[in-house]
Amino acid sequence: MGHLYLVRHGQASLGAADYDQLSPLGQQQSVRLGAYFASKGIQFEAVLTGTLRRHTQTYAGICLGSDAHLVALPWPGLDEYDSAALIAAIHPAPLPPPTEPEAYRQHFRLLRDGLTQWMNGVLSPHGMARYEDFRHGVVAALDHVRRQYRGNVLIVSSGGPIATAVGHVLGTTPETTIALNLQIRNSAITEFAFTPKKCLLHNFNTLPHLEHADYASWVTAA
């Protein structure tokens, strides 16, 4: 039985002009995760990443922390949905940057509403594929892992694809999948056990590399 580790990227740059860039803390989270994998003797047979910059930067940090150099397979189906397009589809007026508490809460209220409508086939945000096509890209990555590998496999992606993978394995409703999505923390690990025929959820949204009190301030979700 193999083990698939799905890792959400480190903290990105919410509220900045370019979200798709790890913050200094996001880089530290990634390096720390790599050091954790090395301390546990976890080595990977294969690595898949989304193609976004925050995905590749996170994997680079993991490599730095673990002194690993396995070349990752880019997998566009592991890229995140466009949250700005989802929000604009239901709230076309400009929003303030989500840097203050109320703006942050409004951002995620609108995002949850947009996700619900998109996943139920009600909303078609500009430039975005249908949710069924998004889901297919994630499931195709899981199928690839099951068919090709037998050991430890690492996927570095975002909250949307990881929650979609969990929802696919557990058969959850869109609303439950969204709730899972919005819980996933930066650099968190979700683990599946897998065979050629199926995946089984082993754990969800864990931060074993940040459990020590010294890293309490490193726990983020943005």
From TrEMBL:
<protein>
    <submittedName>
        <fullName>Broad specificity phosphatase PhoE</fullName>
    </submittedName>
</protein>
<dbReference type="InterPro" id="IPR051021">
    <property type="entry name" value="Mito_Ser/Thr_phosphatase"/>
</dbReference>
<dbReference type="Pfam" id="PF00300">
    <property type="entry name" value="His_Phos_1"/>
</dbReference>
<dbReference type="InterPro" id="IPR029033">
    <property type="entry name" value="His_PPase_superfam"/>
</dbReference>
<dbReference type="InterPro" id="IPR013078">
    <property type="entry name" value="His_Pase_superF_clade-1"/>
</dbReference>
<keyword id="KW-0378">Hydrolase</keyword>
